[in-house]
Amino acid sequence: MKRNRLLLPSTKPTEKKRVLTSANADSLIANSIPVWSTINDIDFEFTFVFNQSTSNFNSIFSRGDGNLNRIEIQITTNLDLGLRIAVGGVAHVAENINLNLVEGVQYTFKYFQSKFYVNGVEEADNSAASSIDVSSLNQDIYFNGKSYVAANGLDLSFFSLGINGETFGLNEGNGSSFKGSNGTIGTTETSASNPENYIDQTVIQEIYGTGVQRKRVLTGANGDYLSFPSTIQMNKGSEIVFNFNLPDFSVQRFLGGLDGAANFIVLQTDGAAFVKVGTALNIPTGELVIGDNSFKLRESGGTYYASVNGGTEYTEATNNFYNIDVISRRSGSSRDLIIYDFSINGEQFSLNEGNGSTFKGSLGTIGTVETSASNPENYINQNVIKPI
User: Fold this and answer.
1) N or C terminus: fewer CB in 10 A for the chain?
2) SS3 category, 116
3) In whole angstroms, what is the distance from residue 143 CA to residue 37 CA?
4) Please, what is the Cα angle at 352 between 186 and 54, to 5 degrees?
C-alpha cells in the first residue's frame, strides 16, 4: 500500500540547541543581569551535552575578572569537575567533584542557595561560606570558556540556561543573540570567520526528533546525492527501508547502493524495479507509483526479499552482502528524487536536521549531502532541506 504522510505543518515548536566548538572559542555570554552580593545569591542552571574529551582544565561556566576574583566550573582531564569561588585571591570554595562525565549524556548543573546540584542530586554544600561578599564577581557570565581570557572552552551542546530565575530557551532560529524570559539579551561569541553565517549554520542546530519534519529534495542537474564516508554493509538478518517520492517515470533513478559497483537499487521508467545483489532481483512493472513510495529489502537465511509499498515480496537466494555508500547516485550520475527518511540495520535516518550538509542516524552514523551547485552550504539550506 502507498505510504501515507501527514502533510500538515507541525504545531510543535522547533527546539534548538547551541553547539559550541573549543577550536573556534565559542561561548554564550549573558550580560546586564542582576548582581550577586553574597555566595547565597548565586543562582544559575544550565543543561548541556559534553561532546568531546579534554586534555586541559577547561571552563564550562565562569564569572569574574580573573583568577583572584571568580566563580568557575572547570572540567578536568579526568572528566571530573572543579567548582571554584575566589574573592581577592582567597579561595572560599574549592570543590573537587568526582563525576566521570560521559560524552553524549545530558547533564544539568545548578547552583542555588549555596548548594551545587548535578541532575538534581546535591554534590556540594557551601552554606558555611554563604555570607561571603562576591560583589566583585559581577561581570558578564560565560557559558563555555573563561570570562577573563579568550578560549579555554570545550566542545559542548547547550540546551537551556537559567540565571536568577530567568530562563533562556535558546530557541532562536538564527543570529548571534538570544533572549531570556525576562527580556535579558545574551550573545553567542566566536572566533570563526564569517561569524554570523557560522553561528546560523553550525552553532544553532535543531534538537533531534523535535519540530517540523524535513526531507531532502535532490536535483539531478546539480549532482545532488547522499553519501557516507565509509561503506555500510547490510547485516545478515537485517533490512533497509527507503521512503521517497518519485516525481515521474521519465528516467531511471537509483536508491542506496555502491557508486559504480555491484550493489544498487534501480527504479525503472515503467514502475518496475530491480536490486543487484548477486544476480538481479526483479520487481515487476506497476509496483512503483508516481508520488510517495516505500522500498524494503531484507535478508533472512541467505535469501533477500524485496518489496514496494508493502506489497508482494520478491526473492533472490545469495550469500553476497548488500553494501551502501551513496543514495540517489549510480556510476557518477544523479537524478531528481525526494528522500523522506530511511533505515539501515535498524539505524533510523529521519533527516530532520534544519540546516547544514550533514545528517545523523539514531546510532550516530554521519552522512553528507553532496552537490555540485555553487555556494553548496547555502544551496543545501535553501533548496535541498525542505519541510514535509
Assistant:
1) N
2) strand
3) 20
4) 55
pLDDT beyond 60 at 7: no
Cell of residue 146, nine digits: 573563561
For residues 222 and 271, the answer to whether their CB atoms sit within 8 Å is: no
3-state DSSP call for residue 224? coil
Nearest CA-CA partner of 360 in 194, 207, 146: 207
Amino acid at 118: V
What CA–CA distance (Å, rounded) separates 257 from 295? 13
DSSP state of 222: G
Residue length, the chain? 388
pLDDT tens for each residue of 212-237? 678 999 999 999 999 999 988 888 88
Record the cell numbers describing residue 236, joined without a space.
545478515
Residue among 335, 339, 304, 298 at smallest CA distance from 319: 304
CATH 2.60.120.200 residue window(s) in the chain: 16-206, 214-387
Q: Are 84 and 105 in contact (CB under 8 A)?
A: no
**CA gap 79, 265 in Å, rounded:** 46
Q: Which of 201, 235, 240 is nearest to 355 (CA)?
A: 201
Convert 91-144 into a string of H (helix), E (strand) and C (coil): EEEEEEECCCCCCCCEEEEEEECCEEEECCEEEEECHHHCCCECHHHCCCEEEC
Q: Which numeric CATH code is attached to 16-206?
A: 2.60.120.200
The set of cell numbers assigned to 87 is 574573592
Task: Quickly count: other Cβ atoms within 10 Å of residue 15's Cβ.
Answer: 16
The overall longest dimension of the chain from CA atoms, in Å, is 81
199 by DSSP, 3-state: which?
helix
- CA–CA separation, 130 and 291 (whole Å): 66
CB environment 141-156: b (16+ within 10 A), e (fewer): bbbbbbbbeeebbbbb
At 51-79, the pLDDT tens digits run 765 556 688 999 988 878 899 998 877 77
Place of cell 550520475: 333
**C-alpha grid cell, residue 289:** 507509483
What's the CATH code, domain 214-387?
A: 2.60.120.200
